[in-house]
Amino acid sequence: MADLKKLRERRKNRVRAHIRRVAVGVPRLSVFRSSKNIYAQVIDDGAGVTLAAASTIEKAVRGGLKTGADKAAAAAVGKLVAERARAKGVAKVVFDRGPYPYHGRIQALADAAREGGLEF
To answer: What is the pLDDT along the chain (120 residues), one digit of tens a residue?
Structure first.
């Protein structure tokens, strides 16, 4: 079990290191996925602040969903975080998938964020 944690941590660090090299001065859209919910936030690493955030635990999102852990929930969170980021004046971000592969819920969130107006 400890080996899986180490591998996941290495993968996360590898993705973040690539993001730091490529996107200097551009906020990142970071995603966290649990077994029951999905969370997304737009982070300005230079200033160390969160510009916008959304998750399936919010009442506004949770009301219209069957569960917080499916593609529909991820799409709702992606659209909401894109709206909130656009309201703060953020149009371009870098997608930080963390240690998760880019498919399923992660891909649904990214596609919905793009449809919501974010460029990455």
So the answer is: 679 999 999 999 999 999 988 888 899 999 999 999 999 999 998 899 999 999 999 998 888 888 989 999 999 999 999 999 999 999 999 999 999 999 999 999 999 999 999 999
- pTM exceeds 0.85 for this model: yes
**100 Cβ neighbours under 8 A, 6+ residues apart:** 31, 33, 106
- 């529909």: which residue's tokens? 72
Query: Pairing between strand 28-33 and 38-44?
Result: antiparallel
- Which domains are present in the chain? 2-115 (3.30.420.100)
**114: its two tokens:** 């793009």
